[in-house]
Amino acid sequence: MIPGRTGGIYIPPFRMAQMLRDVEDKASPEYQRLTWDALKKSINGLVNKVNATNIKNLVPELLAENLVRGRGLFCQSCIKSQMASPGFTDVFAALVAVVNTKFPEIGRLLLVRVMLQLKRAYKRNDKPQLLAATKFIAHLVNQVVVHELVALELLTVLLDNPSDDSVEVAVGFVKECGAILQDLTPQGLHAMFERFRGILHEGEIDKRVQFLIEGLFAIRKAKFQGFPAIRPELDLVEQEDQFTHDMSLETELDPETNLNVFRVNPNFAEDEKAYENLKKSILGEDDEEEEGSDDASDGEDEEESDDEEDEEQMEIRDKTETNLINLRRTIYLTIMSSVDFEEAGHKLLKIKLEPGQEMELNIMLLECCSQERTYLRYYGLLGQRFCMINKVFQENFEKCFVQQYSMIHRLETNKLRNVAKFFAHLLGTDALPWHVLAYIRLTEEDTTSSSRIFIKILFQELSEHLGIRLLNERLNDPNMQESFESVFPRDHPKNTRFSINFFTSIGLGGITESLREYLKNMPRMIMQQQKPPSPSESESSGESSDSGSSSESESSSDESEKKRRKRRKK
């Protein structure tokens, strides 16, 4: 026996097995202690080994252990492993979801401990621990182990007194579970986004956190693309079989920490026998299936093994993204070798694209356009043709517009000019809907030098393409005013003046006539909102005006008499 670093004693596995065999009384405290240590080591080992590829194989091994006795150990091991590696949170949540279908009390115990950990971290301002706890709860919501009302309550608490850290944690939480909240409670999620919008308008948080909120709005507009609720390989439980827990942050919770410590059980033998029967009822079907598969013919086994090898090879090719690289190379060579946009469009449509690969065509077209020394109308006409042919390409260009504007500060001036002219062409030909301009917020605080150059080139190209009169009519369309509110802000005089001065400085002051009229009438509107004066005040003002007029008439008569006297003397 070797003493360990924490004061315990390390027992080699063969020595542990020998000690278990040597114990004659299977209900003695010594035997219970040895089985407890073995159970703890086994649960910790299985939880630490789990990942997205082997979770299906480890679940039967985990259920073979006495989880009723070691439920405290299981919850403790899951929470510690998730804290150590938050990147595998969705894997641990999937493991808990499977266990929760068989033992709902274990799922509830884990949720209670995670909630208490979250409360403790929130009170102590422990940001890393708070991020880990909220991420765990988010993925438990995705697995329908936790009710969606718990997620909305948590967001309400985080955004009640917003600080930089609490808002950042809330943004990360919505990214993780926003897709499923959009399906389950769209109105509740809309209310949370309105709260985010209010925090953004208040402007009391840091610029970095404001950009995080704006990025969250862009993700929501893209329907949480890139942030799926559950990965396909982790979708192990049907929603009908899942048991959902609901609890409030305000209720007092008992973590049952005594379950983490060994205690002598007087009914140890009976409990072990009962769990053996329960284990057979849970895993019995799997055992029968395995026996039936052993009786199959050798020829079928060889065919299945060949099919499995082919599938494994396909997975290897997909993981290296060889097919994706070849597709991008084909698209690039087709674009660069075509004589005109019609030939390029005809060739590109012949390329077989799998579902979801349409975005690669949009990205490559935009990338080729940005790499040119000067903007070529060839790319604009090609993008216009694709938008007119299929609505999927139009939606993808909308996502590209949002993504390019959010990262516009990373582009060089030449690339920035080409991208702006490309999108101006799509907008001018109605290939791209004008509501994409809603993502642009033209204020001094929300723009950088790069974004101002982008907006300048975009609107100058639109005015050259449409003419100032037609452009003004488009921007004054009453049906599209909600989309143009961010470009022509009317929330504050400072932002309104900035927008007017910006367009005037780039030679497009004509499109700000309605905004100038609004700014001119703003004091009058404020005066009209005030209360009318009382009758006593109006009478006093009338008397003062009468006295002032009489005094003026007297002074004028005195001056006329003086002039007459001077004339007589002369």
TrEMBL record:
Gene expressing this chain: LOC125528188
Full protein name: MI domain-containing protein
Gene Ontology molecular function: RNA binding
Stretches with biased composition (Low complexity): 536-554
Presence of the UniProt keyword Nucleus in the record: yes
Assigned keywords, A-Z: mRNA processing, mRNA splicing, Nucleus, Translation regulation
PROSITE patterns the record matches: MI
SUPFAM superfamilies per record: ARM repeat
